[in-house]
Amino acid sequence: MRKPTSHHSRRPTAAPLALALAFGIAAAPTVLRAQLATSFRRGDVNGNGVVDIADPIALLGCLFLGGACSSCPDAADSNDDGKIDLSDASNTLTWLFVGGKKPPLPGPYDCGVDPTVDDLGGCTYELPGCGGRTNEEDEGFEGDPRTADVLSRIHYASRAAPDPDREELDESERSVKLIPVPRKEPYDPRPGIPPYAWNSPVGRSYTGTVAHFAVDPDASIHMERGSPEAEILTTIGSVCVEPEYYVKASDRTFTDWPDVRFQAPANAFGSQAEALVFLGKVHAEQPFFLPFSDASVRLGHGWFYSGDDKKLHRACDYSRSGVEEGEDPTFLVKSSSWGRVVAVIWDGNGGNIVGVEHTAPGGQKIMILYLHLRNGKSHDVAKAKSSTSSDAKYVKYRAFATNYPDHLSWGTEDQKIQVEVGDDVAPGTVIGYAGNTGAGGAGSGLNDDGSPENWRGNVHLHVYFAVPNPTTEDTWVWVDPYGVYSQVDTGCYDLLKDTQFSRLYAPFYPTFHGVPYEIFAYYFGYYPDMGYDLQTLSVHRKDNQLLVSGSFQRDLPGRWYAQGYMTLEEFDAKADSYWLQGYIPRETCVTKSLSGSPRYTAIWRHALAGEQIEHRAALTNTAWQDLWDDRVLDDEWRLEDYFAYTSGNSTRHCALVTSHEGRPFTFSGLLSSSELDAKIDVYKANGLLPVSVHVAELSSGRKYTGIFRPVEGCWKVFWGRNPAEYQQLVDDHVALGYQVWKLQGYANSTRFAVVFHKDEGPCH
Q1: pTM of the model
Q2: Could you give the CA distance from residue 233 to residue 205 in angstroms, rounded to a whole number?
């Protein structure tokens, strides 16, 4: 695709492709070879670091269909009986889906050696987190890139927990002595914008103006029936429930926090129509994540309790599944987003409670309350005994503390609330430990003498979301963070269908990797809806499946567009259309369909005043040389983006050259990993830093390229990182103020290359 310029193309010379200039880059650490793993996760048949439905399927394929067998027989021995047979697949499936016993030590989550002597033989694979680093050129690693991002998988494919004892809500007419104080100005969650959910057809009509991702026509080939990806493609546009959001319940205050009141929607609004408009505007202006990272935690109850009585719950309950008898069922409770702790209190019904108020950059407020936390065994037992209520559940709760003070569900002295009022928290900040404190936390599962009916007690996390009442100070309205407002057993609390109200939980992280393409395309609107822009995007294949990695960020300059998985003809047509609107493709990646045809994904930026460009998506070697000679050597333009790939057995080049800020720059050319690594210090010494890295998978082998310029700020480049290592790089560099500038997944999605950038130092 040649864009209009004032120049004509000239024939290439016989000289080899040259560098514009030879300058520098920030150092990339040498990649080290890993040692063989000596430990494993029980049940991890395919060796990808996570135990899920793919593992029993792989085992059945080995046993009955002639498929590949596990390189770690002990991992395949899910029930640890010293043999590999159908019972192992059954054991894993029972644990995953019906609350059966967790696979024996070392278990499905932690790495360890086999405590049982058998004749199965040792492991010959390496697992993420169980071994050392892996060499860039080592083709043996076939890890699932989602392993290091388990939480995002839970967001769109959560499973309900086995139904624990219900929390006993305190529905007594507790006197609320607050005198309502009118707000000076009504609170509006989305001023000047009509109500809509980002995860609805109407919402997609808004966010769809900046991006479109074509459905992969090969999707049905790799999707299992009933998988989240298949479910999404077959249910787009259907609302999962008729929400029951306009419900009444007693206003709620808490014992040690009497000046703040919480209301159900029907108490807060004069009519259903008024509530509909207000709740339709409730949305996330900053990302919210599930308040835990333990992959065994599942949703037990939503806005209403499951069952025929549909008793109002107003919250979400989470508890661990697959816990063995005698194992503490607690889990770490973590902050869902950035905010400030406004309450650390005790309530007779809710137990230990932490309240966090989240204020987004635009002023939107959301309150989250975490109930039934532990705060040290002695403290919690003493608080339980101090109640004077004659209500039956309080009588049982006191008996529980008096007669069974050493029960497992009380936890330990060290399991305490980790925050104080006034603390600032961020996503993942540890709040405390899930417990069953408070008469409501212990629930209905206590006998008259206080003994728990269930050995585990009712250890769970109860989470309230609330937003400010639009007209009354110090009053908040309960909202459903999933936007469902109905029973959990409808399945609607999985993020698989449209809802009338916005989901507040993020479907994946803003900087993400290994998200299935169908999930990304369907839930793309979450971040653009709150003002995040797409900085970089890579579509890459994992066997027969398409995966997506990228980064949404705030405050990127200028408007942008994105289009995904296009044929060459579609790409050229879209590029021509955007060119007429003044936009050029600043970043392009190429992946292959299952039949081997190239598919193009691009992010467009606004062309600068007076900027001339040429963008070609499928240049032969000769045409690439021609473009280089014409524009770079003769016209002194610079190369802004480059991606090499194969079409058939021939190399093709996708490149953008621009007249804007041409020299100096350098393009490394197609090198081996060690050759590019060797040039890094030379480039850096001459004042150029990496603005792009690309790994080309060609018929002649894997080649590495970089574009380097004299740019301000701090820049770092890495490649050859497996998913867990890449995730660690992101964690470490974000903590130092860096953001992902450019990202690519490659090597069957088992490797990542990344450029990090921050505007000013220190350049750690």
Answers
A1: 0.81
A2: 18
